[in-house]
Design a protein that fits this description.
14-stranded mixed beta sheet, outer membrane lipoprotein receptor (LolB), chain A, mainly beta, 11% helix, 3 helices, two-stranded antiparallel sheet
Length: 328
C-alpha cells in the first residue's frame, strides 16, 4: 500500500473513532443547495450505477464471518419510560455469519450480540438466526443456557423457532451488515428486497452534491432523499464507486454515520474489510452526542460455494418450542 493510500485510510478511520467529539456535525449540511452544473453529477451517478451492476453479476453466492466490538455510551439510550440508560459505558462483542444465495435468492444470518432488555432493565446476550428460503421467513432462538430449575421464563433455556411465513417483522439486513451487501453492488440498500437480490436504481433518485474533502482523495458525494430521512453517500471511484461513508440526516441533523475501509481482491474487486457504525443522539441540553459505536472486521469471505437447502430453513425438532404465526 502506497503512502498516500495509507494516509487516506488513516484519515477515514480517524473520522469514525470513538474519540470524535460528542458534538459532531457533518462537513456538508443536508440542506446545502445543489450545484448549478449538473453534468458532472450525471456522469458520476451513471458510472456508479454501471459499476454496481457489474458487481451484482460477479458472484453466485457468498459466505461471510464478521467479528466486532461495540460500546453503548453512558446515557446513550432511553428505556420505555424515557429514562436515560445505561448508567455507565457498556462494552460488548458481536459475531455475525451470513450465507447468501444471490441467484434464487436465499439468506441465512446468525448473529450474537448484547441487547438491552427493557423489561428486566439490563443487557443480555442474544443469539438469533434469521432464515429466508426464497419463500418463507423463519427465526430461530437457541437456548441461552441450560434449565437451572429456577428461571420461570422458558425463553432462557428452551430453543424457539418462529415460523413467519411471508411475514417479516425485522430486516434480515441490519444497518451494521450493510457493507457486506455493498460488496455485491446492492445500493441503495433501503430499496433491497429479499425476494430479488438485484437492483437497478434510477439515476434521478440521486442528487449530486459535489466532490468530497480533498484530503480524502477522489470522492463524490450524492444524496438520496426519502420521506423523512436523507441518505448521504461518499462514493469512491477507486473502489467501484462504493461508499466509503454513508450518513443519515433527519431534518438536517446527522443521526448515524457508517464508514468503510475496503481492500482489493486478486481480481481487483473491492471487498469491505472493516467498518464502523456510529449513532448520534441529543443530551438534555440539546447538544449532539455519540450514542453508540459498533466496529466490525471481516474475519472470512468465501464466494461461489455450494449452499445446501437446509442452510436456509429449519425443521422443528424435539425440545424446540415452535411458534407458528403464518396464519395469524
Amino acid at each position: 500500500m502506497d503512502a498516500s493510500r495509507r494516509r487516506w485510510l488513516q484519515g477515514l478511520a480517524a473520522t469514525a473513532a470513538v474519540g470524535i467529539s460528542h458534538s459532531v456535525a457533518s462537513s456538508l449540511k443536508a440542506d446545502d443547495p445543489q450545484p448549478a452544473d449538473s453534468k458532472p453529477g450525471e456522469r458520476v451517478v451513471a458510472e456508479a450505477i454501471a459499476a454496481w451492476g457489474e458487481l451484482q453479476s460477479r458472484y453466485r453466492s457468498a459466505q461471510y464471518e464478521v467479528t466486532g466490538k461495540g460500546i453503548v455510551h453512558r446515557h446513550g439510550l432511553q428505556d420505555q419510560d424515557g429514562n436515560l440508560i445505561p448508567v455507565a459505558d457498556y462494552h460488548f462483542g458481536r459475531q455475525v455469519k451470513y450465507a447468501i444465495d444471490l441467484t434464487r435468492p436465499r439468506i441465512r444470518r446468525e448473529a450474537t450480540r448484547d441487547l438491552f432488555n427493557l423489561s428486566d432493565r439490563r443487557f443480555e446476550t442474544e443469539t438469533l438466526h434469521d432464515l429466508f428460503d426464497g419463500k418463507e421467513y423463519q427465526q430461530y432462538y437457541p437456548a441461552r443456557h441450560a434449565f437451572d430449575g429456577k428461571t420461570a421464563n422458558a425463553r432462557y433455556w428452551q430453543p424457539r423457532l418462529v415460523l413467519r411465513g411471508e411475514k417479516r417483522s425485522q430486516l434480515i439486513v441490519r444497518a451494521i451488515d450493510i457493507p457486506l451487501f455493498w460488496n455485491h453492488g446492492l445500493l441503495p440498500i433501503g430499496s433491497l428486497k429479499h425476494t430479488n437480490l438485484s437492483m437497478a436504481p434510477a439515476a434521478d433518485a440521486f442528487r449530486y452534491v459535489g466532490a468530497g474533502p480533498e484530503q480524502l482523495g477522489d470522492l463524490h458525494i450524492v444524496r438520496l432523499p426519502s420521506q423523512r430521512t436523507t441518505w448521504e453517500h461518499w462514493l469512491s471511484p477507486d473502489y467501484a464507486w462504493l461508499p466509503i461513508r454513508r450518513s443519515a440526516f433527519h431534518e438536517g441533523t446527522e443521526t448515524s454515520r457508517l464508514t468503510v475501509q475496503y481492500k482489493r481482491q486478486a481480481d481487483g474487486t473491492p471487498l469491505a474489510e472493516s467498518w464502523t457504525l456510529t449513532t448520534f443522539g441529543v443530551d438534555p441540553d440539546g447538544k449532539q452526542t455519540v450514542s453508540t459505536v459498533d466496529r466490525c472486521r471481516l474475519a472470512s469471505a468465501r464466494f461461489d460455494g455450494n449452499l445446501a437447502d437446509v442452510t436456509f430453513s429449519m425443521a422443528p425438532g424435539p425440545g424446540i418450542d415452535v411458534d407458528d404465526i403464518r396464519k395469524d
